[in-house]
Amino acid sequence: MSSLINDPLITWNNYPHVISADQFGPDSIKQLLLLAEHLLQARADHLRLLLRNANKLMVELFYQPSTRTRLSFGIAMQRLGGMVISTENAKEFSSAAKGESLTDSIKTLNALGADVIVLRYHETGGAARAAEISQAPIINAGDGTGEHPTQGLLDLLTIKKELGRLDNFSIAFVGDIYKSRTISSLVGLLRGFNGVEMHFVAPSYIELSPATLKYLLDGRKKINRHLTLAEAIIKCDVVYMTRIQAENYADDQTLKKLSKDLIDYSLNGPYHGKAVIMHPLPRNEEIAPDLDQNPKSAYFRQVGYGLCLRMALLLQIFGSKIIA
């Protein structure tokens, strides 16, 4: 994971972009989550006043498909009184299809007056490349198999709301651990909190990458690896499920093997455990729809928390004050 700055929400003017989980220290995370929780309780007519007179424009430039991230950023900006322009498949329906480079697209958006650019890119490192040349803040909305920092932040907000704390808990990451950018970002954010025990549940051929393992060990985090979900789930306060990242595998044989093996890592029967169930979504077959009504299933609440988290982040970017 790249390291850009220690606390962007405290030294925001020195580096206005949100690219990596490494940017966020515990103090800035707590500050952001408190703001998000305040926004959860705020009246809609108060929210619309926060950016109404600021004349701020957010452009969403998405080279990969998205439902929750793109729409929640757009809804967040509009609820705050800002303006939104969005492209949902820039790889095919923008000048990228004609061979335009990412840097030229970003320079174009700067020239058109974008005040913030939410970028999802299909290659790892795309957001960092955009940030190098952009006058407007870049928010990384997922870059290849790299990171997805705002998903990690909303996951932290979910954990705080569901458990009531961000220290002294255990979490199991389940499924396609090797390719998941949401896991990469959440692991990076959790490294700054005390007493967090991490369990990784996956077949051996898609378990933790050596780089992520070293990253955790350097942070003196206690980690455990499991080959079955049953042995991990009874030990954890949170279970973080993930789907197969099919778009990141070129080999059909690997995908077939994953589809077969990860059935054993699914929650498809009755669930009576104590652990909160999270998922960044979309899901495939790893969580049965029957579990949606279980009070421990937090994945749709997670989506709602994400809206408030992204509103809070936008307010931090623009330096807007909360109306009492």
Low-confidence region ranges = 1-13
Number of strands: 9
Helix amount: 25-40%
Shape: globular
Biggest pleated sheet: 5 strands, parallel
Distance between the termini: 38 Å
**Remind me, CATH topology of the largest domain?**
Rossmann fold
CATH superfamily of the largest domain: Aspartate/ornithine carbamoyltransferase
Element-level helix/strand string: HHEHEHHEHEHEHEHEHEHEH
Question: What is the CATH level 1 assignment of the largest domain?
Answer: Alpha Beta
How many separate domains make up the residues? 2
Q: Tell me the β content.
A: 5-15%
The CATH architecture of the largest domain would be 3-Layer(aba) Sandwich
SS-based class? alpha/beta
Across the major sheet, the strand order is: 7-6-5-8-9
Number of helices: 12
Ordered list of secondary-structure elements with their pairings:
Elements: H1 26-41, H2 44-47, E1 57-62, H3 68-79, E2 83-87, H4 90-93, H5 102-111, E3 116-121, H6 126-133, E4 138-143, H7 149-163, E5 169-174, H8 181-190, E6 196-201, H9 210-218, E7 222-226, H10 229-233, E8 238-241, H11 252-261, E9 276-278, H12 299-318
Parallel strand pairs: 1-2, 1-3, 3-4, 5-6, 5-8, 6-7, 8-9
